[in-house]
């Protein structure tokens, strides 16, 4: 029977980030970490026009800087120098700029494949061992940890199991951890597009009568599009010819980046706010999308999960108790509760406010955008939320 101090179930961006955050302290303590992942990472990064991407907040950059990884990640990232927020057909708008906030960039957009490659290459296999491709079929609680049964019928015991296997976690359900789910009644259409003009590090949050859209800068003058629509309409837009899609996108977005000349593969994802009813148990932590999945329009989901991972690693490495000690895990969650509540609340309220076409609400948010641009304290608060710094002292 093999035994590890920590077993991280899910080697995606959140699980790999946690492993890297723990790595130096685990080496000093003699801990063994096992990362279990069903999909093997590639040996080399392969550029792709259609690569999915993540928006990293300025706070996430600071975390990766402390890990010595940011310089590598930044080689293929696009900085967000300003964010333009507008409401289609109305005069209210607001601009957030890196210069005003005194930071090199408000955030960065990075292809997931590149970020994953940077993380995986930084892992020390003497401390973090891979079981990949492998999948955990069953988890059984023990007095001193968990016993994991894998798909090859091998077993692994661990002091602490970290469940980071995504928003559709079957293991979360198997363990009887309930989920609060609030569907938005919307679908996110995701695609990369190319404008005729240079984006110059501009990101756009645009609110329309059909739902919000975001356009984020990518390397090679591409933009990552998140377009929220009603389910049938999103599926229609996914399937229409390229020229028709670009024409409809142009009509909804406008000409701030000139015309749109190319769109890549289009994907649709149903949207809901989901939160696990338990994030910690003795010898167990639920992390990443398995703990909370947010609407992508505000770009907060991965950044919150990364802060959770950092806080968990800090707590485990500053306590003398074993990694699975429930009191230690509860102190981690208590320390993150305010950040989680603020971030989930901010993302949810912004989404619901700007997805509502009722005239009174539309007028109110239009005035709110005007006020945001005219009132420095309100603008500062909004910018700190967007940069992932909202729960930190000023």
Automatic annotation (TrEMBL):
Top-level taxon: Bacteria
Domain FAD-binding: 6-332
UniProt pathway annotation: Cofactor biosynthesis; ubiquinone biosynthesis
SUPFAM superfamilies: FAD/NAD(P)-binding domain
Names of the cofactor(s): FAD
EC number(s) reported in the record: 1.14.13.-
Keywords of the record: FAD, Flavoprotein, Monooxygenase, Oxidoreductase
GO molecular function: 2-octaprenyl-6-methoxyphenol hydroxylase activity; FAD binding
Entry's Gene Ontology BP terms: ubiquinone biosynthetic process
Pfam families (UniProt xref): FAD_binding_3
Family: Belongs to the UbiH/COQ6 family.
Name of the featured protein: 2-octaprenyl-6-methoxyphenyl hydroxylase
Taxonomy of the source species: Bacteria, Pseudomonadati, Pseudomonadota, Gammaproteobacteria, Pseudomonadales
